[in-house]
# Entry
Amino acid sequence: MLAGPLILSMTANMLMQFIDGLFLARYSAEAMAAVVPATMAAFCLGSLVTGAVGYTSVLTAQYHGAGQPRRIGSVIWQGLRLSLGAGLLSVGIGFLANPFFTWVGHDPLVRAYEVRYFQIVSFGMIGSFISTAVAGFFAGRGRMLTVMNIQMGAVALNTLLAYGLIFGRLGMPELGIGGAASATVIAQACSAVVFLWLFLLRENRARFNTWQGRRRDDEMMQRLLKFGVPNGFRFFLEIAAWSFFVFVVGRVGTTELAATGIAWRINGVAFFPIIGLSEAVRVLVGHSQGRRDSEMSGRITWQGLWLGQAWMMGTAVLFLLFPHGWYAMFMGSEPDAAPITAVGVVLLRYVAAYCLLDAVNVVVCGALVAAGDTRWTLLASLIAFGLFAGALLAADHWKWGLHALWWIATVFVMILAFVWLIRFWSGKWKQIHVIQYEADFAKDPA
# Structure
């Protein structure tokens, strides 16, 4: 019941990127090549905040499981405070786009597109932060249909705006890659407004203190920072490492970068539904941990993992059987389609290979985070992604080429999966306490 709407919600995010990629691939090869590194750089910028404020869903889930609903309003308001401050900071970082992408060293036209996309998204990132913080209020209590409906609405709006603003249709100006960025920012801002409106409804104000909880709460902020910031840094490391992978691929060539970008979009078909499944596992684990039922948390995690593995293996087969068909959706009959497709067909074999274990990285790591094991997961990620980046640097320095880079990425994904499994099997996460219990905070009767 929880997993279905959340899977659809994360599929909505995948669809937003997938559709933008389809439009940009038909707009120009350079725009398609630029959108992936620019998106990942922007995502990397926002990941630290998203990982931190997104922990509102875990705190909400645990307070919900512990029967303390009136603490939940304060959780969300502390997340909103972080979101507002980070949103202002992201505006300033947007002005650093030109020197950063100049340093990356991609083709000049690709670089110009990268700068334009990154600046627009970073200037409007506050909408994404607010959406993430307030979505935790609904997701943490298992109100997945609300999250799904808002996300699907954002996809519909993004699709309409992206089509009009990229190509100059529907009475809108032709902005190319800037249109794709603008559509994303507007859609995220609208979803933030809707989330806030529902959060502040009268029934939520009465039961969850969604208005009274706006007051400064140092204890709750410390709790959010204690667990959320390590989670945010881990998320940042993950996105930074994969962004670095894309940037290194871009140094091989524009064709290779475009083929990798499309492979990344296709990979989203497998990956984003698993993120939705992981979010459902996180919520259920949060409820169980709030009730101090770690055995149930373990059973939920294993069930989620088996579902995730089945989905990943199914999509891996589709990638292997129909690689030309996947690329044809993006490239169609474009003049530069043949060389990009020829490279991309091989890249999908790597995607299919790491799909065999990638569900572990999402589901099991998500369960550890929901249990509060954020410091250990951060330390493990710091070591693992440091080694990954070092291997990529070596490949770039000695010019090992595209396939060496993808081999490194595939092996890395598989090794990291075993790291999370070993930690989960150890059971050390069972002793971590994320929230206040009745011994030190009276249980709320509401």
Summary: Confidence is low (pLDDT under 50) at residues 1-6, 441-446. DSSP finds 17 helices and no strands in the chain. Residues 3-431 form one domain.
